[in-house]
Amino acid sequence: MRAVSQTGNNTKPNNKGSYRRRRLVMIVLACFMSWAGVTLWNQIGKLTEKGDKMSFLQQLREETQQVNEVTKREVVRLNDPEYVEQKIRKELHYVKQGETLFYVPKEPKK
C-alpha cells in the first residue's frame, strides 16, 4: 500500500478551470456584497429620515393634545355663568350699572 501525504502543501488549483471558477465565484460574491452594502446604506438613511419625521410628528401630536385639553376645559368653564361674567368684565371692560371703571396703564418694559 501506498502512503498518502496529508500535509496540505498542495493548495494551488490543479488546473486553470478550477482557478477560473473560483475567480468567477469571488467576483460574483464581491458584486453581491457591494449591492447589499449599497442597499443597506440607503435603507439606513431612509430609516433615519423616517425616525426624525416620526419624532417631529409625535411632538406635534403632544402639543395638539395639550391645546385640545385646554380648549375642552375652557368649553366646560364657559357653561358657568359666573365665569362668563368674569371673562366679559376682564376682557371687554364691562361694568355693572353704578360701578366705575378705573384703568391703570401698564408700565413699559425697559
Automatic annotation (TrEMBL):
TM stretches of this protein: 24-44
InterPro entries: DivIC (IPR039076), FtsL/DivIC (IPR007060)
Top-level taxonomic group: Bacteria
Sorted UniProt keywords: Membrane, Transmembrane, Transmembrane helix
Name the record gives this protein: Septum formation initiator family protein
Phylogenetic lineage: Bacteria, Bacillati, Bacillota, Bacilli, Bacillales
